[in-house]
Amino acid sequence: MDGVLELYRIFYTVANYNNISIAAKNIHITQPAVSRSIKKLEDHIGIRLFSRSSRGVKLTYEGKLFYEYVEKAMFELSKGEELVKKLLLREKGKITLSVSTTLFKHFLIPKLEDFIKEYPDIEVNVASKTTFESLKLLDDEKIDFCIISRPFDCSKYAFIELAEIQDIFVASQSYIDILGDADTVSSGTFMFLEDGNITREYVEKHLKEWGLIIIPEIVFGNMEFLIEFAKIGMGIASVIKDFVKPELTEGTLIELSTLPVIPKRSIGIAYNKNMQLSIAASAFLDTMLRVINES
Prior knowledge:
Blueprint: H1 4-17, H2 20-27, H3 31-45, E1 50-53, E2 56-59, H4 61-88, E3 94-99, H5 101-118, E4 123-128, H6 131-139, E5 145-149, E6 157-165, E7 167-171, H7 173-179, H8 184-187, E8 190-193, H9 198-209, E9 218-220, H10 223-231, E10 236-240, H11 245-250, E11 254-255, E12 265-272, H12 279-294
Parallel strand pairs: 3-4, 3-5, 8-9, 8-10
Antiparallel strand pairs: 1-2, 5-12, 6-12, 7-10, 7-11
Helix pairs in contact: 1-2, 1-3, 1-4, 2-3, 5-12
């Protein structure tokens, strides 16, 4: 196939103009060069493509059949060139990312809005997964990015920290009143995320360092449920402070000071450092970093 594609292009141009001289001017090569290229292509495929006369050239029957396929190929190549131009201008493309429901609602949506406004023609696909599920998708090269919270071993990934978060324990004022002076740990009804969740693992690890082992009586796979159940007085919920700021301000939730302070941790964007980012994915990363720096 070496060099044959150029012969196809010359054949296609000559067939469109039915004239070697005009075709030569159009593709900016000499008339003899065009004639040699047509002869070379005819020798390559073993058939005569044009009949020649004083008025120009005309496709043979076999040449017409061959032209139909070359025309389709040239059309697809032209579409490909246009697509690449749009990709370079960031007018086309697709990114796929994975994020937990909680991080999507409280962290990603405000940043994603800026990206969509700036690049409305880039398709954004979001999968709602846990941190461990997201990292598996990243390992399998099924997504471009994942938005996750640490800690985890990120040595095999490129990880860029975007924000710090603080895990806290909250309850409604009505529930706190019911507890009264009773010991919070032994008397409280605790609500955690489900077992295997990276947030729960982080919280429990630090509680154990304080000599506390808390067995939750209510478990959810989504922090939104923890927040809502805490608001109606069902117990003490382990939540992320940044994501309940309105409730803390309004007083519908109260941060408990009777439990240990959990060290802050980070939210970041992770991607496979062995995989080349697409132009669209690079645009997304640039936008995320800019929005974070401006906030």
